[in-house]
């Protein structure tokens, strides 16, 4: 039998890992009150990239489904959140105006429902066809929002208002990011995580053992999409502005890929390390190299992929011997096919 605390045994059993995580969270919590707004903005974007990386890593790194439309759920979440806190600008009834937390929760639900509807269709595709299909969905959503100017503001964008200070939104985003990391950790180190890994390694072999691939793909897709919707919802409430061109731009997908690749795909710590490294590189090179920053950044990323394909996490794990291992009871592995 698997204990209720089983998924977290590997996390809380390592005091060093827990200590570093707690210190990092506490340090981030004081950023809005000890630094300038410019620095707070940088750290907020870092949290967004971490959450996007963690959520995309769940569907791609653990389940092996390379989605190139993850930013669609981020952008949709941003607009849903904006519509609910500032409905009058979209011509929506004032009665639906909601607090920030309700708006962000609704953003997550809408993103999850969209994934629930699209998943059975998209998962009929495999490999690069699935990747192209998800990218096409993102492009369609962006074009629809650009066309429906009354709801999105078109190229002009949509201005948002809410009752909270930016510092409070930052803290809420931090709490949401930590919660999503813990939820992802629990999923990865549970029976569902074993099923995802089995599909990632060999879908046909997993099917022959009685594992239902669609079930686990859908689960990962919906959870990852909801997390992207949360990131988008808080993004809209922090910056108080969304635009179909920028908020649904494919650059969000590219940056998410870079975060996961730099940190290490298929590991929990990877997106966290990748998000920190990406933001440091992006902002540091922008200050030092100016307009040449993207070129240098691209060269560094290519070098990283060639010489450190496992990402920063693998480099640190090899150096300090801190490799991750699923915290699932052995019985769970034995019972996995029977549970299907």
UniProtKB/TrEMBL annotation:
Its main location: membrane. InterPro entries: ABC_transp_permease (IPR001851), LivM-like (IPR043428). It holds the Pfam family BPD_transp_2. The chain crosses the membrane at residues 18-36, 42-59, 71-88, 100-122, 129-148, 168-188, 218-238, 258-280, 292-310. The keyword Transmembrane helix applies. It is a multi-pass membrane protein. Coiled coil: none annotated. The keyword Transmembrane applies. GO terms for cellular component: plasma membrane. GO terms for molecular function: branched-chain amino acid transmembrane transporter activity. It is found in: Cell membrane. Keywords: Cell membrane, Membrane, Transmembrane, Transmembrane helix. PANTHER family: HIGH-AFFINITY BRANCHED-CHAIN AMINO ACID TRANSPORT SYSTEM PERMEASE, HIGH-AFFINITY BRANCHED-CHAIN AMINO ACID TRANSPORT SYSTEM PERMEASE PROTEIN LIVM. This is Branched-chain amino acid ABC transporter permease. The lineage of its organism: Archaea, Methanobacteriati, Methanobacteriota, Stenosarchaea group, Halobacteria.
